[in-house]
Specification:
200 residues; alpha/beta; 5 helices; 13 strands; elongated; four-stranded parallel sheet; six-stranded mixed sheet; 2 domains
Amino acid sequence: MTDDEESSGCVIEGDVTVTVNGSIVETTTMTIVGIINVTGNVVVADRVIVKLSTNATLHVAKCLVLDDKAGMVVEVADSVNGENGNDRILATYDSSCSTQQLAERVSIETTSSFDECRDGRPIVEEYKEINGRARLQLVFVHVDECTSGESEVNLVVIAIVVPIAVVILVVTVVLAVPQFRAKVLPTRHYIHSLKQQSTM
């Protein structure tokens, strides 16, 4: 844990074990708000779910261990802002003794106002650093389906606009060229000559 991490947020000295303590409920959720620094180990046991609220971070000096039935949930809202755009650090820990494939044990919970097409699809990645530390990071990736949807809309608009433009062009040519105008829109003189021809 760096000096910057220790100087910010709440500091918990020693080890932390989160368990249901014989509760009869199927799962128990512990929500973390803000920045929590633990100087020892964090062990999440039994069926406990650790939920990281928006902009919450868990810094663990030693091991971060999840029991087989335990898990983590990260909340994602449209107001998320991190160091790299919307990307943000969820947890840091000692990679040598923490749960393997920890990123796969983290699920994502989005709020109703979150839009993948606008903000990107949130995924959790684990990054290991050269100093033996590791971090879980929330990363937002571009969604191709959103771009293809916009293209389809654009094609529909083009399909509608092109025939309208052709009609306008034809009308403009007819009105501008006297020979065409006389045939399509006969003048009074032309109508009068037709009437004379019919009476003969």
